[in-house]
Amino acid sequence: MTSGIDKFLRKLGDKDYARVMQAIAHIMAREYDKLDTKPLVGHKNMFRVRVGRVRIIFVDKGDDPEVMSILNRDDKTYKNL
Fold first, then answer.
1. pLDDT tens digits, residue range 14-60?
2. CATH number for domain 3-72, candidates 3.40.640.10, 3.30.565.10, 3.90.550.10, 3.30.2310.20
3. DSSP assignment of the chain
């Protein structure tokens, strides 16, 4: 994971951290049916997972899924993708 993702995860509380890490484990195992997953409009193979206020943006191109960003939901969450 990138340093921006690591920095965000360090700021989370224990409960939110556990929920986000569990969601990431489901993403890496491709168990999308256990998550609140939606494709991002205008981006091929890019999806978002909602975990409370946190959004996990990832790409699944057939290899292992790659987490692109983890952010709190706000007006700027989906910009610059």
1. 999 999 999 999 999 999 999 999 999 988 899 999 999 999 999 99
2. 3.30.2310.20
3. --HHHHHHHHHS-HHHHHHHHHHHHHHHTT-GGGS-EEEPTT-TTEEEEEETTEEEEEE-SSSS-EEEEEEE-STTTTTT-
